[in-house]
Specification:
- This protein is an alpha+beta fold and 346 residues long.
- The chain is built from nine helices and 17 strands.
- The longest helix is centred in the N-terminal third of the chain and has 36 residues.
- The protein starts with 7 loop residues before the first strand and ends in a 20-residue tail after the last strand.
- The relative contact order is 0.10.
Length: 346
C-alpha cells in the first residue's frame, strides 16, 4: 500500500457511493468490487477514491435489475458484449412491463365497473360509420378468436374502436357528446357488431352503458344488450409505437383511394408532381425505377417525391398474455385519414 494514498474506511466509502457496508462486503466476496487493502490484523477493508466511479456504476446497474453475473460483463467485458447484455435486459424489462400493465389493467377495470356505471353518448351515424371503418381489419378465421372481435375502449374522454388481424390495424376515435364514469374496455364479436352498426345508423344518438350487469346500448326508443367476451385484446398501442412517424400527411377520399389501390395492388405508387400542384395517384402496372425509391420520401431530382405504397405490414407475434404483435421497421408513405390511425386496402 502506498502511504501517500488516502484510503477510505468501508463506512466512509459506503456513504460516498450510496451503498450499505453489507453490500460492499457482499461485492467483495463476489469479486466484483474488491477493496484496495485489507488490514491483516483487524480484517478492516479500505477503498480508494478512484473506485467511486465503478461503485456508482455497479449500484446503478443493480438498481436497474441487472443480474450480478451480467453486471460483471458490463464492468469488465468488452464494450460490444456489454452493449448486448444491456440491450437484452431492456427487452426483458419491456416484456415484463407489458405483462404487468395488462394484468393491472384487468384489475383496474374490475374496480371501475364493480359498483359504478360508465356511460358514453355518441351520434348514431358517427358510431355506425366507425363500425364500418374498422370492420375490414377484423380477422375472419379462428386462429385466435380475439382477433375476430372489435375492441370498444372508453378512456381519456374518447371512445375508440380498434380491430386487427395481425396484417392490418384500424382504429377510429370518437369524441362523445357526453361521458360519465371510469375507463372500460369491451370486446364484441365483429359479426355481432355489424348488425349493431346498422341499427346505430338509423337512430339519432346512442348511449353505451357499461356496468356490473354487463353492457347495453340504448336510443330514445330502444335498448340493446351488447354481448361481450372476456379475453385480452392485442396491445395495439405497442403496434402504433412501432411505426415510424409520418413524413407527409395527405387527406384523400376513402372510397376513391380504396378503388385505386385495389385496381393496381401489385405496384401502387403515390406521387406529388410539384409543390404547386395537388396530390395525385400514379398507378403503373409495373414498378418504375426511381432514385427516390432508394430512400422513402426523399426529394427527386425533378422536384417531385415518390415512394412505394405499403398497406399491410405483418406483425410479428410476441409471446405473453398481451398477444402483442410488433411490426418490422417501416418504410414508405404513412397515411393519416381524418380520425384514423391506419388505412385498409380493402
Amino acid at each position: 500500500m502506498d502511504g501517500t494514498t488516502k484510503l477510505l474506511s468501508i463506512s466512509a466509502f459506503a456513504r460516498r457511493v450510496g451503498l450499505a457496508p453489507s453490500d460492499l462486503r457482499f461485492y467483495d466476496d463476489c469479486r466484483v468490487l474488491r477493496p484496495v487493502w485489507v488490514d491483516g490484523a483487524t480484517g478492516y477493508r479500505f477503498y480508494s477514491p478512484a473506485q467511486e466511479f465503478r461503485a456508482a456504476l455497479l449500484r446503478s446497474l443493480r438498481e436497474a435489475g441487472l443480474p450480478l453475473a451480467e453486471v460483471t460483463v458490463v464492468l469488465d467485458g468488452a464494450e460490444r458484449e456489454g452493449r448486448e447484455v444491456l440491450e437484452r435486459h431492456l427487452d426483458r424489462m419491456r416484456d415484463q412491463t407489458q405483462t404487468a400493465e395488462a394484468a393491472i389493467a384487468v384489475v383496474l377495470r374490475s374496480f371501475s365497473t364493480a359498483g359504478s356505471m360508465t356511460e358514453a353518448r355518441i351520434g348514431g351515424v358517427e358510431l355506425a360509420s366507425a363500425v364500418r371503418q374498422v370492420m375490414p381489419a377484423a380477422a375472419s378465421d379462428a386462429e385466435l378468436p380475439v382477433l375476430g372481435c372489435v375492441l370498444i375502449e372508453i378512456d381519456d374522454g374518447e371512445v375508440r374502436l380498434v380491430a386487427t388481424d395481425r396484417y392490418r390495424l384500424s382504429m377510429r376515435v370518437l369524441r362523445p357528446a357526453a361521458l360519465d364514469g371510469g375507463p372500460c374496455r369491451l370486446l364484441v364479436h365483429a359479426a355481432d357488431l355489424i348488425e349493431f352498426g346498422q341499427w346505430a345508423g338509423r337512430v339519432h344518438e346512442v348511449t353505451i352503458q357499461v356496468g356490473p350487469n354487463g353492457a347495453r346500448a340504448r336510443s330514445t326508443a330502444e335498448s340493446r344488450v351488447l354481448v361481450t367476451i372476456d379475453d385480452l385484446f392485442p396491445a395495439y398501442r405497442e403496434m402504433l409505437s412501432a411505426l415510424a412517424p409520418p413524413e407527409y400527411r395527405v387527406i384523400v377520399d376513402r372510397l376513391a383511394l380504396r378503388e385505386a389501390v385495389n385496381s393496381h395492388a401489385d405496384a401502387a405508387r403515390i406521387a406529388r408532381a410539384s409543390p404547386t400542384t395537388s396530390w395525385s395517384s400514379r398507378l403503373p402496372t409495373t414498378p418504375t425505377p426511381s432514385p427516390c425509391l432508394r430512400s422513402a420520401m426523399k426529394t427527386c431530382p425533378s422536384g417531385s417525391v415518390s415512394t412505394p405504397l405499403s398497406w399491410a405490414p405483418r406483425w410479428r407475434p410476441v409471446s405473453g398474455p398481451t398477444f402483442c404483435w410488433r411490426s418490422p421497421p417501416q418504410t414508405g408513405l404513412s397515411w393519416c385519414v381524418p380520425q384514423t390511425r391506419a388505412a385498409s386496402a380493402r
